[in-house]
Amino acid sequence: MRFTRMLRVGAAVAALALAAACGGGGGGTSGKSLAQRAKDTKKLTVGIKFDQPGLGQKTPDGKFEGFDIDVARYVAKQLGVDEGNIEFKKAESAQRENMIEKGEVDYVVGTYSINDKRKEKVSFAGPYFVTGQDLLVRADNTDITGPDALNGKKLCSVKGSTPAQKIKTDFSQQAELQEYGGYSECLTGLSTGKLDALTTDAVILAGYAAQNPGKFKLVGKVFTEEKYGIGLKKGDAEGRDAINKAIEKMISDGAWKASLEKHVGPAGYKIPDPPTVSEK
Amino acid sequence: MDFLSRYDLLGAFWVTVQLTVFSAIGSLVWGTVLAAMRVSPVPVMRAFGTAYVNLVRNTPLTLIIIGASLGLYSTLGLALADDTSGTFLKDNNFRLAVLGFVAYTATFVCESLRAGINTVPVGQAEAARALGLRFGQTLGIVVLPQAFRAVIAPLASVLIALTKNTTVASAIGVAEASLLMSEMIENESDKLFLVFASIAVGFVVLTLPTGLLLGWVAKKVAVKR
Amino acid sequence: MSAPSVLYDAPGPRARARNVGYTVAFCLALVAVAWFVLSGLNDKGQLDGQLWEPFVTDSRIWSEFLLPGMGTTLQAAAVAIVIALPVGAVFGIARLSDHAWVRAVAGVVVEFFRAIPVLILMIFASEFYFLFTDVSADSRPFWAVVTALVLYNGSVLAEVVRAGIQSLPKGQSEASLALGFRKTQTMTLILLPQAVTAMLPAIVSQLVVVLKDTALGGALLTLPDLLSQYKLIANNYNNTIPTLIVIAVLYIAINTVLTQLAARLEKRLSRRGRPPAGVREDHIEQQDVHLAETKTGDASGA
């Protein structure tokens, strides 16, 4: 008898678990534009990165800070939503389109490069920042001068990353590749000299350099162009225009530059000129 | 099935097989040493054996493998390959992974062997001692050979588990089967089931014969008592 | 041969001297390894107080990172084992069915999922949920991890259940049938309750396996578990190696508690000796053999 009760409890838990799993999704976004939704509910859900120093980082206070976070907050404010009413959600790179399509977030600000493949699924506002692939090396390194100087060097990147492959195919065929699950693993080897360079977008690298003052530097030879945009539901032209307006305002009133200087400036990273908002 | 030819499935599984074989040999040796320590007359060795098994067995393998890469190589600078070979990172990661698998799997080999030693009748060891054999001889010549014959089946499950555990090496970028699977899924998400099936079949092909063969061997060599 | 002393004589003067020699040599070797590790860590500044300090002085490192991570780990493991138990029971019973086709189907399913690495199942489940379901991005890694763990551990537990039922004395089911119980009643009222209580220690040690396997989800599937916290902590405090060590200690502590619990349960249950005296010895021996088997099955834990 005891067992049948156990079985029943087990079944109930399983059923509950399933229900929770299925009911968990969906932020209840209707067909309305996000600009309208923000005005009505005074609330927004924004997808960000949690583990990107300088851009989107979770701090020990349980808060978030970084350039992407500042952009997300600024845009929300322009849409009439206070800082306290923004709900931040972790948006891993591979999940960004899916989260937007399913309405789990209103928009995503998370090192999100605008490209045509993504545009099939989501709309972009911006760009709010233009960067490109670069290399991060130890501060005392002098022989790595660019992507073509990596033959025989140990290059680190994250799994399934196209940047690292690009270096091997286009610049330095003899480069050795180390792939990890995340960039922070690369930094351990980079700081002890067991790895020679880390590659990804320059501004991300600048975030890590700023986090470890005096330890790392950017090579500064950018060899691709990445335009960071704010991703939102496909076809929401009204929302896109509203966000574009907010980005333009952020650039023109100096908040854009101030935020960058605060979060990635300490790395000695030269802050590029603000982009022209072109996603119309 | 055309897309399968675009990926080096066999190559990836070959890495899995190599990881398994090298780790299996290493864990068998290290596991036997640990078991010997745990039954040895030297208290320090016994204590070390017990502590090692309890600590390592309770640590997630993923953590051990990441620790091998970040701790042993990146921090302590332990290089297990030729730095000038041009494939240093590939070789070094492979060997670090093997080292991690050996460290972890040996604890299970050790515990199986200890259980095996317990199946050997007390009289065997008593007779060996009566003949004047020392501890090393008693263990090496009389007890362990019988213990091994008794634990072929449990060791087979350890080997199968090891084969599957080699997938964890993908955490430090060793290009084995699961890393290939992630790559395939990223590029061909519409063929999810086909990708899964091809990788799954690979592992079934690797583990099923191992189990059957060693099960047969276990019956064949079992000490009849 | 439980006492190890059977393997060697009580040491005489020469053996004692030799043992002292071994002890010294072994200690020296241990010290050498420890020296290599510690001096290496020290060279790279990994022993600096400032890297370790936050774990003591900054409670936020616990409240924001480690404890929530541990919560996720425990939650995933608990949910997985709770669902895996009934699944395992069903398949274990199915493998003992009187109908050949039920046995065959259950056998194939169980053997298949036991042959596939949990990580492969996790990657598959995650992508499956991504493509075909509405599971939100937040909870997708969690359910992918749980699904994979249920499929794998359900299969393992099915074997545990099957062996547990088979180890029961035949008289149990015979008596039950003689009393007029039907097959289902015999199974659910007579056999399973006895088998499950006897298997409880094995189930608790399986929990250790499950708990360790959740770390796969943390490292390779973006589950915010205990292991994955090292990235977030290292981003804020620049102390990857100390963080990994602290996290390892936490895992070892949790798993040691569970292992002790399993050992204690095992002791208590074997003392209680539920079966009638006549079959008792046989039963316990079977159980021990069986437990030895499932313990080696532990190795499947990653």
TrEMBL record, chain A:
GO terms for biological process: amino acid transport. Pfam families: SBP_bac_3. Keywords: Signal, Transport. SMART domains: PBPb. Coiled coil: none annotated. Belongs to the bacterial solute-binding protein 3 family. This is Amino acid ABC transporter substrate-binding protein, PAAT family. It comes from Streptoalloteichus hindustanus.
Automatic annotation (TrEMBL), chain B:
One of its GO terms (biological process) is amino acid transport. One of its GO terms (cellular component) is ATP-binding cassette (ABC) transporter complex. InterPro entries: AA_ABC_transptr_permease_3TM, ArtM/GltK/GlnP/TcyL/YhdX-like, MetI-like, MetI-like_sf. It is a multi-pass membrane protein. Keywords: Amino-acid transport, Cell membrane, Membrane, Transmembrane, Transmembrane helix, Transport. Pfam families: BPD_transp_1. The keyword Transmembrane helix applies. It is found in: Cell membrane. GO terms for molecular function: transmembrane transporter activity. Residues 13-214 form the ABC transmembrane type-1 domain. The chain crosses the membrane at residues 12-37, 58-76, 96-117, 138-162, 192-218. The keyword Transport applies. Its main location: membrane. NCBIfam families: HEQRo_perm_3TM. Belongs to the binding-protein-dependent transport system permease family. HisMQ subfamily. This is Amino acid ABC transporter membrane protein 1, PAAT family. The lineage of its organism: Bacteria, Bacillati, Actinomycetota, Actinomycetes, Pseudonocardiales.
From TrEMBL, chain C:
Its main location: membrane. The keyword rRNA processing does not apply. The chain crosses the membrane at residues 20-38, 74-93, 105-130, 142-165, 186-211, 241-263. Residues 70-262 form the ABC transmembrane type-1 domain. Residues 279-296 have a biased composition (Basic and acidic residues). It is a multi-pass membrane protein. GO terms for biological process: amino acid transport. Residues 272-302 are annotated as: Disordered. InterPro entries: AA_ABC_transptr_permease_3TM, ArtM/GltK/GlnP/TcyL/YhdX-like, MetI-like, MetI-like_sf. It is found in: Cell membrane. One of its GO terms (cellular component) is ATP-binding cassette (ABC) transporter complex. Keywords: Cell membrane, Membrane, Transmembrane, Transmembrane helix, Transport. One of its GO terms (molecular function) is transmembrane transporter activity. It holds the Pfam family BPD_transp_1. Belongs to the binding-protein-dependent transport system permease family. This is Glutamate transport system permease protein. It comes from Streptoalloteichus hindustanus.
